[in-house]
Amino acid sequence: DVRLVESGGGLAQAGGSLTLSCVVSGITFNDYAVGWFRQAPGKEREGISCIVNEDATIYYADFVKGRFTVSRDIAKNTVTLQMASLKPEDTGVYLCFAVGPTGGQYWGPGTQVTVSP
Q1: How far apart are CA 52 and CA 31, in angstroms?
Q2: Spatial separation of the C-alpha atoms in residues 47 and 113, rounded to whole Å
Q3: For residues 24 and 89, what is the distance between their CA atoms, to the nearest angstrom?
């Protein structure tokens, strides 16, 4: 079975930092694009960052550029999201995802991030 399990969420103050990790199992990690979405209360799910598997190109949403850094550890099947200069509007459930070469998508259950003013 494919499993994605996030960890590292919690409470932070505005201007603070948090690091999220996602451990992936059940797939050939290097064959998949991996990254993060988030969903705030009452809002649609939005993409944050993605690492493309073929050449490890990294994409960021404009609203996190310069503040968030995504990375992957192929040996540990882990994708990490380092978040700095957090803002209250970064509050939401952060979800790890993996997309395979034939389009199959897998999602983790999410981890809550709350940023206080």
Answers
A1: 9
A2: 15
A3: 27
Distance CA 6, CA 32 (A): 17
Per DSSP bridges, beta strands 33-39 and 46-51 are antiparallel
Tell me the per-residue pLDDT of 44-92, one tens digit each, with 9 for 90 and over: 999 999 999 778 899 999 999 999 999 999 999 999 999 999 999 999 9
- What is the maximal distance between C-alpha atoms in the chain? 42
pLDDT at 41: 87
In eight-state DSSP terms, residue 101 is T
β-bridge mates for residue 79, sequence order: 22, 72
Q: Does residue 82 contact residue 19 with C-beta atoms inside 8 Å?
A: yes
4: which 2 tokens?
Answer: 């994605």
